[in-house]
Amino acid sequence: MIVLEKRRQPSRHWMLAAPVLAVLLTMVVGGAMFAALGVAPLEAIRTIFWDPLFDPQFAAYSRPQLLVKAGPLILIAIGLSLGFRAGIWNIGAEGQYIMGAICGAAAGLAVYPSASVLVFPLMVVAGALGGWAWAMIPAFFKTRFGTNEILVSLMLVYVAESILASVSSGLLRNPEGRGFPGSRNLSQWDAAANRELIAGTGLHWGVVAAFIAVILAYILLTRHIQGFNIRLSGEAPRAARFAGVNPARVVIFCLGTAGALAGLAGLFEVAGPAGQISIDFNSGYGFTAIIVAFLGRLHPVGILLAGLLMALTYIGGELAQLMLGLPGASIQLFQGMLLFFLLGVDVLTNYRLRLGRGEKA
Amino acid sequence: MLRRTLLATAALALAAGGALAQDDPVKAGFIYVGPIGDGGWTYEHDQARLALEEHFGDQVETVYQESVPEGADAVRAITQMALSGADIIFTTSFGYMDPTMEVAAKFPDVKFEHATGYKRSDNVGTYSARFYEGRAVQGLIAGRMTETNKVGYIASFPIPEVIRGINSAYIHAKKENPDVEFSVVWAYTWFDPAKEADAARALIENGADVILQHTDSTAPQAAAQEAGNVITFGQASDMAEYAPSPRVSSIIDNWAPYYIDRVQAVIDGTWESDDTWDGIGPGMVGIGEISSAVPEDVKADALALKDSIASGEYHPFTGPLNRQDGSVWLEEGEVADDETLLGMDFYVEGLTGEIPN
């Protein structure tokens, strides 16, 4: 009989090994699934993990795309990880991302067609504020009335989606768009465009912001008292209270930071790769970032790597669909496996496996 | 060989590689907004893709990518398809308009065909179907068959194409039955079975006994079947599995002849950007079999209407017609011009509620 025995302390080795093992397990089981679909498993795995980086036909285009796709994921995941460390479960980053994009785009469009250099900075500030304000709603209700932030933040995603639909076909609709929903194209308006900073690299302001967020989060968590408070609140809430940590303040700080970063991600996306506010603007970054945060062990550097890996599975998955004719759902299943195995393997971080009879507790 | 290696170093230049190898089969790519198994819009595009393969055999190779989100991801999907050597790419949803234009500018040697949009360039053509012709036939059947005089309409997005459909159906229902009322629900999705089912149930609870849909799943059909005594129409695809009732007829998109025609033009080297908007006449819009649940006389009238539209004898938007606010749109005998129809953003007189904006 196999018994799970709780470890006194989470194993450091397993904490690092778990993501690697999860990726390997995903490759094995995913490969079996691809084989069942009639595609050579090694070829499928190679197409997903290798071709976007090194295939001569695609790499020149898809390598920079990796940054474009990973940028918002990392930016949002960094914000979420702070809350997750403190035991504050913000599941509504998708809504904060949408509101950031709407507020940022609206601030810009309000001064259209100004060519001032201040337009883009204005939009950045408005985007961050929009996301922050949206996250303050669950923060307010949690600190004031003790509501559950998981439910409130998640439900607000659907509210944000409805607002998105409304402004796309109303307030922010392109007056020259023949009545079709969707705002003006911001990426075609010089003053508002979030351009590629170095041609051919995919590097835009959102990616720069993501890198800065990684560095700041690292410093915060290792060097700053607020980072200590956050970790303490999550690991030992009672001890935190005795140490004089104000729980409400931690909630407001964590949700606010996550909201502002998600809002920024939305703004950089709408002014750059997406180009315009439209009904289908959001494509799930806010939810995928939750996976990225956990895959990265809630550690800033880990999140950076996990964001890149997740982006790789997206872009590689698209190539696999295109080149091997794999169905879209199989790629989603493949990505789902990654989280599933990670959570599964994670048991080993806190428990050890023992063969033989279990001891009575 | 050297030439190939040189080209390979510049991946973007490789797009021109398709033009170098004339003996290779023509590669046709398709970008789909939903899964190919949606049973509606994307399903019909994919059926046409298969018909294309059937028709040309070894001369053509097809690739597709399904469930591509509209926006930034679409740019990447279309670019990768062009990089993979596609000669012609069909982007099959309205939201791919700007992405298609953006990618097309980078690949001047690849032909692009965008469905239901209005932006064109030297290598981007557009195509769409006059679905409103089919809506007229549905409206007639709906007006005659409803007993509660309440018709529910599940609309997707407030864009001209959808508004045209609502107006056309309403005009022809009203002609048959002056007491008919339409309630329109905006689902803000093309494909979301759960949302569509909710919308259908809400409409049925409010007394609607006819449900029209401009969304792609069969969920409203299932909801109608559950409720009983409600009729529906297949959308984009025949949805014959729900015949003879609740599904009493359907609008079927038939893209195959168009796709075959355009790929032939690529093979012949005669492809040029243009704008195609075909209806029942040329066969781009089909009316699915009117089932036995429809009385014979209604069926005969519906088919007569269909024939008169197909022959061009009758236009579904023929005056006298007023706008919702009572102002005159079309005088007696006047026929709507395509420009107005393409930008239609108003309801005709008699429809209640507002178009969201």
What does this 3D model show about the protein?
Chain A: Keywords: Cell membrane, Membrane, Transmembrane, Transmembrane helix. Chain A: The chain crosses the membrane at residues 68-88, 95-112, 118-141, 150-172, 203-221, 250-271, 330-351. Chain A: One of its GO terms (molecular function) is transmembrane transporter activity. Chain A: It is a multi-pass membrane protein. Chain A: It is found in: Cell membrane. The complex is a heterodimer of chains A (361) and B (357). Chain A is an all-alpha fold and 361 residues long. Chain A folds into two domains: 1-37 and 328-361, no CATH class; 60-326, Orthogonal Bundle (ABC transporter involved in vitamin B12 uptake, BtuC). Helices cover 69% and strands 3% of the residues of chain A. Chain A has a two-stranded antiparallel ribbon with strand order 1-2. In chain A, helix 4 (59-85) runs antiparallel to helix 11 (247-271) and helix 8 packs antiparallel against helix 11 (247-271). Chain A is globular, with a radius of gyration of 22 Å. Chain B is α/β, with parallel strands linked by helices and 357 residues long. Chain B has two domains: 2-129, Response regulator (Rossmann fold); 131-253 and 285-342, 3-Layer(aba) Sandwich (Rossmann fold), CATH 3.40.50. Chain B has helices spanning 2-9, 17-20, 41-56, 72-83, 97-106, 131-145, 160-176, 193-205, 219-227, 256-268, 296-310, 338-342; strands at 26-31, 60-65, 88-91, 111-115, 124-129, 150-155, 181-186, 210-213, 231-234, 247-253, 275-278, 285-288, 321-322, 328-330. A six-stranded parallel beta sheet of chain B has the order 2-1-3-4-5-11, sandwiched between helices. Chain B has a six-stranded mixed beta sheet with strand order 7-6-8-9-10-12, sandwiched between helices. In chain B, strand 3, helix 5 (97-106) and strand 4 form a beta-alpha-beta unit. In chain B, helix 3 (41-56) crosses helix 10, helix 4 packs parallel to helix 5 (97-106) and helix 8 (193-205) runs parallel beside helix 9 (219-227). The radius of gyration of chain B is 21 Å and the shape is globular. The A-B interface holds A 56-62, 65, 68, 162, 165-166, 169-170, 173, 178-181, 185, 269, 273-276, 278-281, 283, 315, 318-319, 321-323, 325, 327-329 and B 8-12, 14, 35-36, 63, 65-67, 69-73, 75-77, 79-81, 83-84, 94-95, 98, 118, 157-160, 188, 342-345, 356-357.
